Amino acid sequence: MSLAGKKVVVVGGSSGIGLATAELARKEGAEVIIASRNAERLKAAADKIGATAIVTDVSSDDSVANLFRTSGAVDHVVVTAAQLRSGPFKSVSMDDVRATMEGKFWGAWRVARAAQINAGGSLTLTSGFLSLRPRPNSAIVSAANGALESLTRALALEMAPIRVNCVSPGIVDTPIRAAMAEAARADMLAKIAAGLPAGRVGVADDLARQIHAFMLNGFASGAIIYIDGGGLIA
Predict the structure, then answer these.
(1) Does residue 233 fall inside a structural domain?
(2) Structure confidence at residue 180 (pLDDT)
């Protein structure tokens, strides 16, 4: 099986896991639409892989509705978009807490409601390992990820026969960490890698391959797969 001739929408497709997923789908011959709120970065990514770009803000009902009015019916939808703002539970601002839920959870909710997915198609959401292995100063991210995993199971029932699944990344070396100084980033990732059974941190392609498998596997629905290098057992 392949994605040749299928239409795929990747929300959050301008960088990282989303871009890797979109690029893999294009290589298989799919028509790919990528969406994100940064118009300049989105256009550059679309030009690079031969995709269609539609500027979309997942925190806006109208913006998400426009995405799917423009794209029409599609075969597969992937949501990797996230706007995360975390901090210590007692002091993180409620504005940051709400923004994280808007960008991570409610954004996925809006996409799921607005998407017109053809029979036999799929919706794949992206959570994160903090749902099961929380750490200090990230309670809102843990909560958003856990909510997404619960939503996955619920939507697999409500949206059937459309298949709904979730991929949960561990530590992945993507542009989300680009703001860190290079030496500090490399040192942090090396220390994390040393503690993982896989011996390395993830890269975007690791997650893209699992999302690709969800799109193609007609027996996968309501599944949550943790791609974390063994982080949950380390």
Answers:
(1) no
(2) 74
